[in-house]
Design a protein that fits this description.
About 30% of the residues lie in helices and about 25% in strands. The chain is of the alpha/beta class. The strands form 5 sheets. The chain has a 6-stranded mixed beta sheet with strand order 6-5-4-1-15-16. A 6-stranded mixed beta sheet has the order 7-8-9-12-14-13, with helices on one face. Helix 2 links the parallel strand 4 and strand 5.
């Protein structure tokens, strides 16, 4: 059995105000071509199909086009789950009808365990999709008071899978989660606040392959066959030096997997460049495209008239510019706090201290976490 593991497409993403649909379409054309050339039997997409609960029309059209080519033109099975960016109900629309065509969509967690069975000359291969769900939702569905965070929710869900998992049969788990020890980037949205979003890799023992989504850096998570494929593209400048790829997996009749990372080549790369303005204008790197999305760090200390405008004449997609010396305080020794690098809880804590003159205590933090969880639940099902 040969399949592709991919995740975190984030269709409809805005990057510093730029719509990335054309860039995403280019990379997805590569994915379709790879699926055809490699003669894969299935595509596994581990969540965050869209970038937000109500995606823009062009993102919906792009997904429809890609899935139509894979399923209808190439007769390739597709199994996809919802991530924390997706609306479970919207993503699942028509799923029972589409399953008969080889498009298996699992947008929300249900009480009954879902299983998609694929077949080759060695027999069945069972794929168990577990979409993202907040712990309160899992607790309600499974009617278990022991579920209080992402780890206990995932343990309860995988335990239900193991109850129906045939002994000796090959199996794959498809999930969207933050595995403890995984390396994150700036472009992932936290699953929760207060550290309750982490799950242990031992939740995933007993499967021949675990296809994970959520973390945008391609990496293994507790074993060679517990893998994050990483995001479809670079969605932050923190990922500039991070090649993007999909996992091409071949599983033999005994369930042993050979995993290969296949790089993806974007229409425009995401890069960081640094130097003095005159040098950057005179000597662009000839091995790189000037059309790439750029973050520029200027080392100049003198005043510059319209530095960004000058850069745009040479590099039309400068999205962010930094001048480190301007970030220094008056005595030139202490940097100001970069609030962009603080998480939500840190920002609220700083705000709370500034307004009240007191430090955030455990009771305040618990109240904040409760409110944010409710807001995120509402956001995923926002009407507009």
């Amino acid at each position: 059995m040969r399949f592709i593991h991919t995740a975190d497409w984030h269709l409809g993403r805005l990057f510093y105000g730029v719509h990335l649909t054309d860039d995403q379409a280019c990379v997805l054309d590569e994915l379709v071509a790879l699926a055809k050339d490699a003669c894969v039997d299935a595509i596994l997409i581990a969540g965050d199909i869209y970038d937000r609960a109500v995606p823009p029309p062009d993102a919906v059209r792009l997904l429809d086009d890609v899935l139509s080519r894979l399923v209808m033109e190439m007769n390739t099975s597709v199994i996809l789950i919802g991530g924390n960016h997706d609306s479970p109900d919207r993503l699942s629309f028509g799923s029972r009808v589409l399953a008969g065509q080889g498009l298996n969509i699992c947008g929300s967690v249900n009480k009954d365990v879902e299983c998609v069975s694929l077949h080759d000359e060695h027999g069945p291969l069972h794929v168990y999709p577990i979409p993202y769900a907040e712990p309160p939702r899992v607790r309600e569905i499974l009617e278990s008071d022991e579920i209080h965070d992402q780890d206990s929710a995932m343990r309860a869900l995988t335990a239900r899978v193991r109850q129906i998992q045939p002994g000796g049969a090959r199996s794959i788990l498809l999930a969207h989660a933050f595995v403890r020890g995984g390396k994150e980037t700036e472009s992932e949205r936290p699953l929760s606040v207060g550290g309750a979003d982490l799950v242990s890799s031992d939740c995933f023992q007993g499967f021949n392959y675990v296809a994970l989504g959520h973390l945008h850096r391609p990496q293994n998570a507790g074993g060679d066959t517990i893998c994050y494929s990483g995001s479809l593209m670079k969605y932050s400048f923190s990922e500039a030096d991070q090649p993007k790829s999909v996992r091409l997996v071949e599983m033999d009749g005994q369930g042993v997997c050979t995993v290969e990372s296949i790089p993806l080549n974007p229409l425009r790369d995401v890069r960081r460049i640094k130097g003095y303005l005159k040098e950057l204008l005179r000597n662009p790197d000839p091995s790189k495209s000037r059309e790439d999305y750029l973050m520029v760090t200027l080392l100049d200390t003198d005043a510059i008239l319209d530095a960004r405008g000058q850069l745009l004449e040479v590099y039309p997609n400068v999205l962010h510019m930094e001048r480190p010396h301007l970030a220094l305080s008056a005595d030139r020794t202490t940097r100001r706090t970069d609030h962009r690098k603080l998480n939500d809880l840190d920002l609220f804590s700083a705000f709370f201290s500034q307004v009240t003159g007191e430090e955030l205590n455990d009771r305040h933090e618990a109240a904040y976490e409760s409110v944010v969880t409710e807001l995120r639940l509402a956001e995923r099902e926002a009407e507009q």
